[in-house]
Design goal:
- The complex is a heterodimer of chains A (239) and B (490).
- Helices cover 44% and strands 18% of the residues of chain A.
- Chain A has 239 residues and is of the alpha+beta class.
- In chain A, the strands form two sheets. Chain A has a six-stranded mixed β-sheet.
- Chain B is of the alpha+beta class and 490 residues long.
- Chain B has two domains: 117 residues, no CATH class; 280 residues, membrane protein fhac: a member of the omp85/tpsb transporter family (Porin, Beta Barrel).
- In chain B, the strands form four sheets. Chain B has a 17-stranded antiparallel β-sheet.
- In chain B, α4 runs antiparallel to α5.
- Chains A and B meet through β1, α2, β9 and α7 of A and β15, α6, β16, β20 and β23 of B.
- Chain B: It is found in: Mitochondrion outer membrane.
- Chain B: Pfam families: Omp85 (PF01103).
């Protein structure tokens, strides 16, 4: 193989002659903008040890909800993200975020657009440690939950496995069907559509159509149910 | 830049060398003599006209009327407006003044896009001159215009700014006889997965100095530096001037819906800002340009100041005020040095009217056409390998352009030595003006390089050997060879 002559390598290694520290990547205003989108989980216990690692669950939006203890809590606005938020709470000994935080953890629920996800589906799980950041898509989260909870004893946990699949697939499909067919009153709230867009019919229509154009592809819903769409297209063409 | 397939074929077909191959020696000699005769006649004619103009520079001239060939392509009121500089003067004018007016009209005619190859002739002192009141001469200028092609379609390829693409273009020209054009472009390429542009332009109130341009576009582009796609859909309305003088203005209203789609970025700025953005802005640009060539000037100055206000409607996603200043000064050394110096400087400032700015609106610097020896948009703030852009920047360069030894000074190939610098930072609204100003001034990233460049009429090509001298940690540097193609360089 061709080797770079030592003298050339030396010359190239000499440059740059001076290196300044990195340019700061954020500002206080930007941090504030990001923090507004975050809702921190509560630690179950006051003395819970905080680690360097943290995670954020990226969801469409959050809605306020009054818990059994009378506290107002934030929950994800869609059932799929709510399911994942509850699993995360259970596994990490956390409580749902509240309006009046008393024992805030470093983990959070974060409002993001579905366009933030590489596969345009939410929720996503953003895992941070000191060195790196990993973004897990919903498929990856579901796979990890199934692997770590059911694969060790598949026969013993058969009933739970069926139940898990039922939630992940059947209830998910039902949710997509609802989105596509029902006239959902709180659609804007579910997908965090800016209320300022009410001022422009065109702008709002663009955003809503953009959501609908993606919804049918979530978890390959359209591919798994082609007859449903053929039938709907037939209905539209005959009308 | 554009490399049109059909244009290239035309050029090859009309290549003079191709025609010479089958000629005998005596035929070649005859052809050469005829060419010499033609050149001699042209020179004599030119000398005669120059002498005539010199002797009669103060001769009073009166324009009785103006004639135009192929005038049926244009509306009467449109032509009247174009010829008004010649026809409106009721008093006789000097020949010098007449020629000036003639050149204004000629420039107007050429400036109107659909008038292909306007040829202006004037029959002064010829058959059509009529003596009027003794000393005053009446003249009838005749404008020979080529017939306008109404419909035009072409395909081609574009190369430049680190990307390549293919396009198909349809044009309908001079639709209503007043230089109104519609064009439709469809492009697909390495960075632009799809782009469709519908453009309508026309002179404002028949005045070819003012052009109104309205375009509707939809496209999807890869923003590799933030590992994302950006879909854009919307329209812009622009009025710009094309005065013969150095100062020109441009006024634009833009309304766009942009969707930022994260593909692989791990930057928190990218995934919190992903989704729909509505941009509704007013933009004003003023420029002063005396350069003799836009791609590779050898003398002249260029100054541009632009300001943009985004926030015309309440639903605008990230309102801001943005300003950009650009300057270029070119000095030529004494003629026998065959060297010129180009000094370029740019700066920009983006002020958010909300808490922060959008990654779609921020400035990005660095690259083979910008601060060389850094990768495309490789300077400024980084977050998990994404260049997330900044709100303030200053960059510039000093270039020495000289002829290649033992190569004609007329050659389009030149030697190039340069120093580039630049800095891009975020703006902290809470920090105050002085601290923000200090953060962008000083501690610049700096690079040096040399190479060869080729100045094609459509664009400039550069192949340089570059080395970064001073960098910031996390700047994306490029050592060794770097090539650049484009129309605008530092």
């Amino acid at each position: 193989m061709f080797d770079i002559p030592e003298s050339v390598k030396k010359l190239f290694d000499t440059f740059p002659l001076t290196t300044y520290p990195a340019i700061p990547k954020t500002t206080s205003g930007n941090d504030e903008f990001i923090e507004e989108k975050k809702f921190y989980f509560e630690n179950e216990k006051q003395s819970q040890i905080s680690t360097n690692a943290s995670f954020s669950l990226g969801v469409h939006n959050v809605v306020e909800f009054k818990g059994q203890d009378g506290k107002r809590k934030y929950i994800p606005s869609d059932p799929v993200s709510l399911g994942q938020a509850l699993i995360l709470c259970h596994k990490n000994k956390l409580k749902l975020p509240t309006t009046s935080s008393t024992n805030r953890s470093c983990n959070s629920i974060m409002k993001v657009s579905f366009h933030a996800s590489p596969d345009k589906q939410l929720p996503i799980l953003i895992e941070d440690d000191k060195q790196s950041r990993t973004i897990r898509t919903i498929s990856s989260i579901i796979e990890t939950v199934a692997k770590s909870n059911f694969q060790k004893h598949p026969y013993l946990d058969a009933e739970l496995l069926v139940l898990n699949d039922f939630i992940d697939l059947k209830l998910f499909d039902l949710w997509i069907l609802c989105l596509l067919n029902e006239n959902i009153d709180r659609f804007d709230e579910i997908f965090d559509i800016d209320s300022k867009l009410d001022l422009s019919f065109v702008a709002k229509s663009l955003v809503i159509n953009n959501i609908y154009s993606e919804v049918e592809h979530w978890r390959a819903f359209r591919t798994r149910n082609p007859n449903l769409f053929d039938y709907m297209e037939l209905l539209l063409s005959t009308n | 830049m554009s490399l049109d397939h059909d244009d290239m074929l035309d050029r090859l077909a009309s290549s003079p060398t191709g025609g010479h191959q089958d000629l005998s020696k005596s035929e070649k000699e005859l052809q050469s003599l005829m060419q010499e005769k033609q050149e001699l006649m042209m020179k004599q004619s030119k000398d005669f006209m120059e002498e005539l103009f010199k002797q009669n520079s103060t001769q009073p001239i009166k324009v009785k009327n103006v004639q135009i060939t192929n005038g049926h392509s244009f509306r009467d009121n449109f032509l009247q407006a174009q010829f008004s500089p010649l026809l409106n003067s009721k008093q006789p004018v000097s020949l010098q003044e007449f020629l000036k007016q003639l050149s204004v009209v000629e420039n107007l005619m050429v400036g109107i896009h659909p008038v292909v190859g306007t040829i202006t002739t004037q029959s002064i002192f010829g058959r059509r001159t009529v003596p009027d009141n003794g000393a005053c001469i009446s003249v009838v200028p005749i404008f020979n215009t080529l017939p306008v092609k109404k419909f035009y379609a072409k395909t081609g390829t574009n190369i430049g700014n680190g990307e390549g693409d293919g396009y198909i273009q349809f044009q309908l020209k001079n639709i209503f006889g007043g230089a109104e054009n519609i064009s439709f472009d469809a492009v697909t390429g390495t960075k632009t997965s799809s782009s469709y542009l519908l453009n309508y332009n026309q002179p404002v109130f028949n005045n070819a100095d003012y052009i109104s341009e309205n375009s509707f576009s939809t496209n999807t582009r890869k923003w590799d530096w933030i590992q994302s796609n950006v879909k854009t859909f919307g329209f812009s309305n622009k009025i710009y001037t094309q005065f013969d003088g150095p100062v020109n203005h441009e006024f634009t209203v833009e309304n766009y819906w942009k969707v930022l789609e994260n593909l692989n970025s791990k930057s928190i700025d990218v995934y919190t800002q992903s989704g729909s953005h509505f941009k509704n802005s007013l933009i004003y640009n003023v420029s002063y340009d005396t350069r003799n060539n836009k791609h590779l000037p050898t003398q002249g100055k260029f100054l541009r100041f632009g300001v943009e206000y985004n926030g015309l409607f309440k639903f605008t996603t990230s309102p801001f005020i943005k300003s950009v200043f650009e300057s270029q000064f070119v000095y030529a050394f004494p003629k026998n040095w065959y060297t010129s110096v180009i000094l370029t400087g740019k700066s920009g400032f983006l002020f958010p009217l909300n808490k922060t700015t959008s990654v779609l609106d921020r400035f990005y610097i660095g690259g083979p056409n910008d601060v060389r020896s850094f990768t495309l948009n490789g300077l400024g703030p980084k977050d998990y390998n994404s260049s997330i852009g900044g709100d303030m920047f200053i960059n510039g360069g000093l270039s020495f352009i000289s002829k290649i030894p033992r190569v004609s000074s007329e050659s389009n190939f030149k030697l190039h030595n340069f120093v580039n610098f630049g800095k891009l930072v975020p703006m902290d609204k809470s920090a105050g003006f002085v601290r923000n100003f200090k953060s962008v001034v000083g501690d610049f990233s700096l690079s040096y390089g040399f190479g060869i460049l080729y100045n094609h009429p459509m664009a400039r090509f550069e192949l340089n050997f570059v080395l970064p001298l001073v960098v910031h940690d996390r700047d994306y540097v490029r050592k060794g060879l770097q090539y650049g193609i484009g129309v605008s360089f530092l």
